[in-house]
Design brief:
The protein has one helix and nine strands. With 121 residues, the chain is mostly beta strands. The protein starts with a strand and ends with a strand.
Length: 121
């Protein structure tokens, strides 16, 4: 049986004068990783402070971020990915406002693929 896919969209308006970074956090004590294809066609990890570029170059573009998350925490069946877009690298993204998040309840040991499109306005 194929793993479920959860699709979502986030809109973000960058300041043209700033540079931006993407951090994806897998929450609730679950396991996983995130990646995206950058605007030059290269695969990039999106776990922490992945460079996105200047706000002026992001306007009107979209990124698709894929996050594969596995339920490993026996105390919580909810899988969640939180997306942070910051204008400087951060050590603790939880101190920053989130750009968006996606979540889904899962069965024990189930893996879910989150596919989120980030649209830069």
């Amino acid at each position: 049986m194929a793993n479920p896919i959860v699709k979502g969209t986030i809109s973000f308006t960058p300041d043209p004068a700033k540079n931006y970074f993407l951090t994806c956090v897998i929450g609730n004590g679950q396991a996983g990783n995130s990646a995206y294809t950058d605007f030059e066609g290269n695969q990039q990890a999106a776990d922490k402070n992945a460079p996105l570029g200047a706000g002026s170059s992001l306007k009107g573009k979209s990124l698709v971020v894929a996050s594969e998350v596995m339920q490993v925490n026996p105390d919580n069946l909810n899988l969640v990915v939180t997306y942070y877009i910051t204008d400087e690298p951060v050590d603790d993204p939880a101190t920053e406002p989130e750009a968006g998040s996606a979540d889904q309840d899962a069965a024990a040991s189930q893996t879910i693929l989150f596919v989120t499109t980030i649209k830069f306005q």
